[in-house]
Sequence to fold (346 residues):
Amino acid sequence: MVDVLRAHANFRDPVGLLLRMLRSGDQGARAALVREVSRLALAPLDLALESRERKRIADAEGPMQPLVLIVGGSRAGTTLVYQTLARHLPVTYFTNISSLFPRAPLTATKFFQSGPQNARVRFHSYYGNTVSLAGPNDAFHIWNRWLGADRYRAPQSLSDKSVGDMRQFLTAWTRTFGRPLLNKNNRNADCVALLGRVLPEATFVVVRRDPVRVAQSLLVAREEIQGSKRWKWGVRSEDQESETDPLGYVNVVCRQIMDVERKLAEDTRTLPAARLIEIQYEAFCENPAGSIVEISRRVWGAPSSTLPVVPEVQPHRQSDNRSRVTPEELERIRGCLTGFERIRAG
Fold:
């Protein structure tokens, strides 16, 4: 019960969120709700598998396989990048199956997963929640073990024990499945320098998107997830405290976007260029094959022979939230983000 409460502590109005998800008719929203109910129902089995999980992790030996960690601000397009890379690269990733067993994700995935899941990845999500059990999962249920339950901020240091536990788990996962691990988690954008230090095996894929579109999407997300544009949602977000400015929440969202970019710029400077791959979301949607080839070259040394024919990777249609914000909000967004490019340029 404590874990359930912690999982919902980041949502302002869980009951209202449930009703909005049901009313949305979105298959990703429905799938997320079904998984939540299933997770509670499977808790006894999860508990029973925990001792086997501990032994599997403790017994893991040998070097960790490479890690490919996708980071970026909330609503920057990181989920679509995650889905595309999971579909077309020879990687393992944390699936929605693993989220049903937070105590024993490795053991449950090994037991219930029938062969590589990559070909079953579908390009749909509801605010990061993918549809199928084979779909890639953000894996808060795993990262929270070491980084805590706060989805808005990440710690900037870890104890030696936490580092050791993290490394042993990731070693066990990659050794079990014999492939590099791919994962996307937006909160990890708040601790790239930390993860870079403790996980030298990691290559970071940094996803960026037109900040005006990110702001529009964040406003929509605040209303749909939290029930009000005033309440925070996403990494490094804050509530609107002042009630004197009717559009004050727009300023807060724009500060969030610039704060994330400032932190990413600061953290990525601590890593060698060889461990960074930068993706502009708009360009990725037009030519996902280019990013697939580049990441394959970086991680495997050359495009993998197991990749599909690259020209068959189709472009993605970009979403546009302009029709869902008011002209006044859009004007305020553009005014607030005038200094964004200076931050990105460092």
The radius of gyration is 20 Å. Residues 1-7 have pLDDT under 50 and may be disordered. The beta strands are 67-71, 92-93, 125-126, 129-130, 181-184, 202-208, 276-280. The CA atoms of residues 79 and 128 lie 6 Å apart.
